[in-house]
């Protein structure tokens, strides 16, 4: 089996998705840590060797002679979970799982995760004028994403099918720390129950 | 075989991805058109029946008694292409294809497609102050995405492996009309050659 190294910043929910996927699958995963606040993922070496996009997470896959690098959190989760029960085999369910994962990257992460980063790690006083001007729009869009999730979870235990899939893992990562971005999770009771189901899974690991 | 109906606005590159996928696969696809500029995808009926997220594209799949709706352009492409050569079977290549599709939705579409929408369809004079304040950041981020693509395509004919995959289709949709958003494609020669390869594919269809 290949050896896996996660290039990560432990504060990142995108990195945590990959660690949670590996934990639920019982796969060993070592980590190499970077501080995104000080530009450690924008060095010439990182750009040349690990990810020309200058972002973490990146999953390094060491397989015999070959070492390959896979950016994008949800793609790395897909690689690790390939062939496992975390990816449904049914054609519609598999596409529907990806639907929620694209929703996560387009509608959820740029709002829920970005406000957490700005308010919890950067600090409101340090935001640029342009960032400050976007806070309200991101608050509304983040609440819309959480409402959509809550509506779905009011009728379903998991995002797709009858058990946990990568869709749940992808959406759990930043939802369970959304209060750090100023989102009140008490407004979303079905999300609250689903968070508890996630945290009861065998081999669940908490975020650092 | 199921019948497919695409709920779309023909100006949308996200909708076009699905039409191009169906064309390359030789799959029949009928369409139902909405005008996103006048809120036709935000009506109570659309939200209740087609997509609670109020967005197109949505792929409607009519399979015998069952009718199901699949939002998110890249998930709909995945459904249509399931089992075809547009999705590599190799484990790494499949994840790497998804990596480019997530990159497209996170780094490319919100910049390249949004500027096209704002400048070509809404019109610069009609933009809100908040939108105007974001144009420069989206211009820079869009150029970064195009540069990253160009660097990859300078060394590879296709984004993943030796033939066209969904990664190419997803990235082609808004790249080939990026000049409508004010991006000069002459700066990216490897993208230019790849656009020609895309347009030479058997069964290729142009955007409306």
Summed up:
The structure is a homodimer of 208-residue chains. Helices cover 51% and strands 11% of the residues of chain A.
3D architecture notes:
Two copies of one chain form a homodimer. Chain A has helices at 13-25, 44-49, 73-81, 91-122, 129-153, 166-175, 189-199, and strands at residues 3-8, 30-33, 58-63, 66-71. Chain A has 208 residues and is of the alpha+beta class. The first copy, chain A, folds into two domains: 3-81, Glutaredoxin (3-Layer(aba) Sandwich), CATH 3.40.30; 91-199, Glutathione S-transferase Yfyf (Class Pi), Chain A, domain 2, CATH 1.20.1050. In chain A, α1 (13-25) links the parallel β1 and β2. In chain A, α1 crosses α6 (166-175). The longest helix of chain A has 32 residues, at 91-122. The model of chain A has no long low-confidence stretch (mean pLDDT 96). At the A-B interface, β4, α3, α4 and α5 of A face β4, α3, α4 and α5 of B.
H/I helix tally of chain A:
7
Number of domains of chain A: 2
* N/C terminus separation of chain A: 26 Å
What general form of chain A does the structure show? globular
Give the DSSP E fraction of chain A (strand runs of 2 or more residues): 5-15%
* Name of the CATH architecture of the largest domain in chain A: Up-down Bundle
Identify the most extensive interface between protein chains.
A-B, 36 and 36 residues
Average pLDDT figure of chain A: 96
